[in-house]
């Protein structure tokens, strides 16, 4: 399990606000998280922001 996955699983409600601050175009629906769907969540963020998956992971890991 990656550090990104650990952060998402453990603190997603807290992290979601910080992600929305950085990527203002994201909605609550974009940031809906269900256990086991971390890659799908990262893909939605990537698609909506135009950032690479690695850039999104790096940002989440830095929080």
TrEMBL record:
Pfam families cross-referenced by the UniProt entry: CsbD
Domain of life (superkingdom): Bacteria
Transmembrane intervals: none
Residues covered by the CsbD-like domain: 6-58
Position of the signal peptide: none
InterPro entries xrefs: CsbD, UPF0337_stress_rsp, YjbJ, YjbJ_sf
SUPFAM superfamilies cross-referenced by the UniProt entry: Hypothetical protein YjbJ (SSF69047)
Gene3D superfamilies: YjbJ
Family designation: Belongs to the UPF0337 (CsbD) family.
Descriptive protein name: General stress protein CsbD
Source organism of the structure: Roseivirga echinicomitans
């Amino acid at each position: 399990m990656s550090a990104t996955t650990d952060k998402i699983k453990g603190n997603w409600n807290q992290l979601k606000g910080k992600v929305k601050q950085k990527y203002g175009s994201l909605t609550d629906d974009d940031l809906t998280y269900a256990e086991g769907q971390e890659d799908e969540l990262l893909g939605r963020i990537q698609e909506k922001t135009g950032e690479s998956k690695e850039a999104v992971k790096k940002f989440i890991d830095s929080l």
